[in-house]
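Protocol step 4 of 5: obtain the predicted structure for the target chain.
Materials: sequence only (see below). No template structures provided, no constraints applied. The aim of this step is simply to have a reference model before the mutagenesis design in step 5. Sequence pasted as it appears in the construct record:
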Amino acid sequence: MKSVHAWALALACLLPMTAGAQWQWLDKNNKKVFSDQAPPLEIPDKNILRRPGEPAPRTGSSDAVPEGTSAPVAAAASARGAARPSGMDKELQDKPRKAEEAEKARSAAEEQKIARARADNCARARQGQATFDSGMRIARLNAQGEREIMDDNARAAEQQRLQSMIASDCN
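Step 4 output (structure tokens):
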């Protein structure tokens, strides 16, 4: 039974601590508003009377500094109070940036894929050009599957095609 009393006493002592996480501000009609959430963004800093984690001001002003507090501590307290939450979740703020980074990564991967294909095309075109420059006779299969030797006109046309591939893909 004594442990139940001890727990009840501990809970009673911790209950006022939850009230410390309260915001207090003056709304547009100069009425005091108490909430566990930050005030709307349209409320100016001068109308915020109390923030969570700060002691209640001794006077009506939010700039009240307790006696005996040094100037640097007072400046740090006022700077801490000036940092207002933006009202947006950090995850929501990062979402567009992450989407942009993913799009950049996707486009970079696509560019790499295109660059690899161009390099492969370049290598094949150079190899074909070297084959044609060697003067070797080249045979192709026609539509009926028969082997035919390329004449000078077909050879010149193929060399022209390979030259244009080299010019476009081998930059």
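Step 4 remarks: The chain is about 55% helix and 10% strand. Residues 60-82 have pLDDT under 50 and may be disordered.
Proceed to step 5.
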